[in-house]
Design goal:
Elements lengths: L1 H31 L29 H7 L4 E7 L6 E9 L2 E9 L8 E7 L6 E6 L1 E4 L2 E8 L8 E7 L8 E7 L2
Antiparallel strand pairs: 1-2, 1-9, 2-3, 3-7, 4-5, 4-8, 6-7, 8-9
């Protein structure tokens, strides 16, 4: 009887340890990509519209925060390559924070390239990367960006094709001014 109880206890301990490892990996993956972890400055969330309502942040649903706020600026993104790409972007400046959401219809890219978002201050031409777009459907891409810096005046939205994801914009595809 004692041997059986010992095996059950060991099994419970192993299961508990396994669950703990899985939890640590999940939490670690979240914080690795999260603005809310020290040393990181971006939170990127891009999911299909049908599960957007399950996305939460300490401030509520990120996308709904931008879309439903009357202070959000909206940009219609037009294709600067004379192609058929299009999109819409939202920029929300609030007390020392910025929330930015883009949804775009773009051509498929090879694995060597990706789409990257940018916010530009049209007065100074200073710019910041808002991260890599996520594919959410056939020809559909989205990007969500939040930061605790305001970046007031960074209201020009640019989408580029990038060979290298770095701090330098490459080929412009979509552009628009959030108003």
């Amino acid at each position: 009887m004692k041997e059986r109880e010992l095996k059950q206890k060991n099994l419970i301990i192993l299961l508990g340890a396994g669950l703990l490892v899985i939890l640590v990996l999940l939490v670690g993956g979240f914080f690795k990509n999260s603005r809310f972890a020290p040393g990181f400055n971006k939170l990127k969330v891009a999911l299909p519209q049908n599960i957007v309502n399950r996305i939460s942040s300490p401030h509520g649903n990120i996308i709904e925060t931008v879309l439903d706020n009357p202070n959000s600026l909206r940009a219609r993104l037009t294709d600067v390559t004379k192609g058929t790409s299009s999109g819409v972007a939202y920029v929300l400046h609030e007390e020392n924070s910025l929330t930015h959401y883009v949804k775009a219809n773009l051509p498929e890219l090879t694995d060597d390239f990706s789409y990257e978002g940018w916010l530009v201050n049209p007065t100074t031409n200073a710019y910041i990367s808002t991260g890599k777009f996520n594919k959410v459907g056939e020809g559909e891409y989205s990007l969500t960006y939040m930061t605790q810096k305001d970046y007031m005046g960074y209201d020009k939205v640019v989408v580029t094709i990038e060979k290298i994801l770095d701090s330098t914009p490459e080929t412009h595809v979509l552009e628009g001014l959030a108003k």
